[in-house]
Design brief:
Helix content is 30%, strand content 20%. The chain is of the alpha+beta class. It has 2 domains: 193 residues, Alpha-Beta Plaits, CATH 3.30.70.1230; 217 residues, paralog of FGE (formylglycine-generating enzyme). The N terminus is likely disordered.
Length: 501
Amino acid sequence: MGEIRNFRSGSHDEPPHGAMPRRLAAIIVGDIAAYSRLMQADEEGTHVRVKRIERDLIQPSIVEHHGSLVKTTGDGFIAIFDSPVEAVRCSIVIQQNLIGRNASLPKHSRIEYRIGVNLGDVIVEPDDIYGDGVNIATRIEGIAEPGQVYISGAIYEQIKHKVVCGYESLGDRKVKNITDPVRIYRVLPDADAVGRTRSRRENALIFFLGITLMVIAAGVLWYLLAPPPGKVGEQAAAPAASPSPQPSPHEAATQTPQPSPSLASAPSPAPSPSATPLREPQMVAIRGGSFAMGSNDDPTERPVHQVSIKPFSIGKYPVTVQEWNECAAAKACGFTATGKDDAPVANVSWTDAQQYAAWLAQAAKKPYRLPSEAEWEYAARGGTQTKYWWGDKLQPGMAGCKDCGDLAAEQPAKVGSFKPNPFGLYDMGGGVDQWVEDCWHRTYQGAPGDGAAWTGGDCTSHVLRSGSWKNDSRYVRPSNRDGYDTNVRYPTHGFRVALSP
């Protein structure tokens, strides 16, 4: 892999120009699988495609996640991050976006990266980095499968309670030129995938065992029920008692029942419709008004500014698994959600939420949409201006979050498990993070004052509100806000819908 191949051989273990200050960093090393084959098949085309991916995907993703691109190496790249969380998020974003880019291409033409992530002490020069931390990241990348993100145990310990993904332990691996074995994990962006991965072999074994037991049971049943030899002719000759003849199933199906005299003239009831009626989310009408949006608790919530809100309606609850799966059944939403019907749907991207809103609007013939960020906060405050809608101090049993009380758990509670706010809305804080219409901006500087969604600027990320069951209580404040990648699913992300008058 160009310079990285030399790096693997050990020639880059120490910088050539003397010692420099060290720093602890999360290191990403990416490398294109089967690069030589791709170049041999189409050298110029592959080069152009790789450069386009670096320009349009890899570099912007690194910047968006507060990292620095150290260098590209022809068929790979190296980047460093202050935050292990952001390094892993960036790696997931790159891989999932590549899936979309490759979807329409034949397998032999796809550009797929292997990505390794490690946390280590490194020496940073203007155009390169050095040290065992980089060596380990490179070795991990070499082990990774195409399209996968592998991380070291050091990264895993830092992110396991912060990035809600599935993680498959691959055990300790001895890697070249590193004295101690390195513990390695495979990242599964879908949290449920870890269970599927771990149980794949067990499920296959259970399946074949079940088939074997069915065959044995069928044999035993045949042995018990089959007539003894020599008795078949006698049984066939024995006269059967013949009560009034019964019609065969076919005859019964084709015979016309005789109507009762008293009902002969009554009209036939209308057939019940075969389609299940559309299940629209329960909505709450919100009167317009003006409020002070934001807070001074976090730089992203500043400046506090006055916003006017027009009347609108918003979902009483977040969209549930059952409501989402109606869209999935209509093949208008991208996946079938798992979980209880009355749980909030989760693991949806902003794009997924938009698909649901568009389907619901078309099916119900009503202007359903995502709420704007200003509408969401106005509704979440419920006419209050305190830290939480119920006051300035955390109270148990008011929201579903990591430290919100006894009902906090390893999954979101069913919708409506906590008290409603003064507007009659449930789960406007905790439960699941909730997508809104707006593109992500780091502050409110320049935000609209009329309650409309802020859609200008870079929309590769969109705004999330509410906080989730995995977050601390500070995230359930009505003013709390965050941004996340537009097209990436995440296990704590859900949404609710709004409705224009």
